């Protein structure tokens, strides 16, 4: 178990003074059996109006407006979260159960691919080869292992809206690409899979109280009797250094910040700091 303090600071600067912007922030960690939110707040400067709601995917959302002249906007999400490793239930299902009408109906939203997650022909074949000889959990792990060996993590290589096919073709991408690639391949063979947005403490040997540059991160969960978290970017199970904020079909369901501004943005600075406090 670990206790993590996460600060996610985003600053927008504008080419000229603007008078209005309308935004949504998904920066509040989720309450889960493996995750307790001890404290959480979002500070915005400037801000005119704000409200909170929980969206369709059960993510906490802060909606806010700035209706006054401003040349920059700063949004800071700060949370303290207690995280424990999560062990899925031992009751795992096989291919026959996954392909049955009951689960395909209940989990249909996590079985259909979109233009963002649709895999290439080559990745489809890799997924089919794994699914043909292994149980669902082992097949899912084999697919993620293949991604890790064939795609290189390159910061800035793609954007959050890059389709999985492009990342596969250029053999490089960021965490969103690894997640979209894994989701597309898993869904192709009939394994329900969803996108997870959150944070990762990247330094395994960090001392208690040491603040490090963290990451706004993405990984996947697949369903085979219970939801199982896996980080394809790092090719390992999700543990007590991963903090969940939201889950959905793909990135567009759980973006950290979205908005509309009456003007043009000239600069964007995003910094995530993670401190293990216990």
> Percentage of helical residues?
10-25%
Q: Strand sequence of the main sheet, in spatial order?
A: 3-6-1-16-10
> What integer value in Å does the Rg equal?
19 Å
- The top-level CATH class of the largest domain is Alpha Beta
Q: What kind of sheet is the major sheet?
A: 5 strands, antiparallel
Which CATH-level-2 architecture of the largest domain? Roll
CATH topology of the largest domain: C8orf32 fold
The rounded distance between the terminal residues' Cα atoms is 8 Å
Poorly predicted residue ranges: none
SSE ordering: EEEEEEHHHHEHEHEEEEEEEE
Number of strands: 16
Provide the number of structural domains: 2
Helix and strand composition category: alpha+beta
Give the averaged pLDDT, no decimals: 92
- Compute the number of helices: 6
Our estimate of the beta-strand percent is 35-45%
Structural shape: globular
């Amino acid at each position: 178990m670990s206790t993590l303090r996460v600060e996610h600071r985003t600053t927008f600067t504008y080419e000229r003074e603007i008078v209005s912007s309308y935004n949504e922030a998904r920066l509040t960690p989720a309450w889960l059996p493996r995750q307790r939110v001890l404290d959480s707040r979002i500070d915005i400067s400037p801000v005119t109006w704000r409200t909170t709601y929980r969206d369709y995917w059960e993510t906490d959302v802060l909606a806010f407006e700035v209706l006054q002249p401003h040349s920059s906007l700063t949004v800071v999400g700060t949370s303290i979260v207690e995280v424990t490793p999560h062990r899925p239930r031992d009751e795992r299902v096989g291919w026959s159960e996954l392909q049955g009408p009951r689960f395909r109906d209940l989990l249909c939203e996590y079985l259909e691919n979109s233009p963002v997650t649709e895999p290439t022909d080559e990745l489809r074949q890799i997924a089919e080869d794994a699914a043909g000889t292994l149980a669902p959990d082992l097949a899912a792990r084999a697919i993620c292992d293949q991604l890790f060996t064939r795609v290189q993590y390159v910061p800035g290589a793609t954007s959050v809206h890059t389709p999985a096919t492009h990342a596969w073709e250029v053999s490089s991408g960021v965490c969103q690409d690894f997640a979209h690639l894994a989701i597309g391949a898993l869904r192709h063979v009939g394994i329900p899979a969803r996108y997870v947005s959150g944070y990762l403490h990247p330094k395994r040997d960090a001392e208690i109280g040491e603040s490090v540059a963290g990451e706004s991160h993405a990984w996947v969960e697949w369903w085979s009797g219970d939801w199982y978290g896996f980080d394809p970017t790092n090719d390992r199970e999700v543990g007590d250094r991963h903090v969940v904020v939201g889950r959905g079909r793909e990135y567009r369901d759980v973006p950290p910040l979205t908005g509309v501004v009456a003007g043009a943005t000239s600069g964007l600075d995003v910094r995530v700091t993670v401190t293990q406090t216990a």
